[in-house]
């Protein structure tokens, strides 16, 4: 039996990043800043953003929808992957966090591709539907507060075209969805446990959940 220690998770993540496309300098800066941010755990995992950017290129996506911006890692990665005429509709509530995202967009030269809506995401999503934007998005990324996830998902099903992709982050809640329910669980745990279980029976999508970051679910809209 080998006595060599297994690679630590951080070392493995760094190694895997080296085997892929080089991280854009602006993305590297956002990641470094998030590491010291008091709410840095809200940030998307770099490997998740890399996969989403890869999917944008693979599917020749032109229109993306992001629910939850934080400091802009995923939106910057998506915008860099989009063609010059590509556009992102970004939804968030926090002007302080998204000011950092907007600076990152400018630094990366992609600010013209992104429209930020600073209001509750459900208001923005309902407005887009009312404006006739149904089935106009190629990819939607949900990375926001967990309790409204089912509502975000239902709106995205209307806004994403057939054959398009809906991606949802933090579906594992650091493993809490796997454990038996506890009285101290926040409401998000029960919501996500029920939501995750229902996806396998939802004929409107083809689901795939990957153990990237805190769990990333990818869905093809039927």
UniProtKB/TrEMBL annotation:
Transmembrane segments: none annotated. InterPro entries: Cation-dep_OMT, SAM-dependent_MTases_sf, SAM_O-MeTrfase. GO terms for molecular function: O-methyltransferase activity; S-adenosylmethionine-dependent methyltransferase activity. Its EC number is 2.1.1.-. Keywords: Methyltransferase, S-adenosyl-L-methionine, Transferase. The keyword Phosphoprotein does not apply. GO terms for biological process: methylation. This is O-methyltransferase MSMEG_5073. It comes from Kingella potus.
